[in-house]
């Protein structure tokens, strides 16, 4: 199975005056949430809701901001 990429548009619904960002994303068809780089969260002025523990493909655990 090959990798699937998609052009998506991200926005902050709490900041409708901010322009949406168009990005190319790697699709994980089994994912329930989306993971975005910190610089995208900063550009969209997303607020951290909490910290969550995630496990990456290399089986390492990380605590990351959930926005």
Topology:
Blueprint: E1 5-10, E2 21-26, H1 38-43, E3 50-55, E4 61-66
Antiparallel strand pairs: 1-2, 3-4
Question: Your description of this structure?
Answer:
The chain has 67 residues and is mainly β. Helices cover 9% and strands 36% of the residues. The protein contains 1 helix and 4 strands. The chain has one helix spanning 38-43; strands at residues 5-10, 21-26, 50-55, 61-66. The strands form 2 sheets. The chain has a two-stranded antiparallel ribbon. It has a two-stranded antiparallel ribbon with strand order 3-4. A hairpin with a 5-residue loop joins strand 3 and strand 4. The radius of gyration is 13 Å and the shape is flat. The mean pLDDT is 92.
Low-confidence stretches are none
> Helical stretch count?
1
Number of strands: 4
Q: What composes the largest sheet?
A: 2 strands, antiparallel
Order of neighbouring strands in the sheet with most strands: 1-2
From the helix content, strand content and strand pairing, which structural class follows? mainly beta
- Tell me the span between the first and last alpha carbons: 31 Å
Mean pLDDT across every amino acid position: 92
Along the chain, the helix and strand elements come as EEHEE
The helical percent reads: under 10%
- Overall body shape: flat
How much beta, percentage-wise?
A: 35-45%
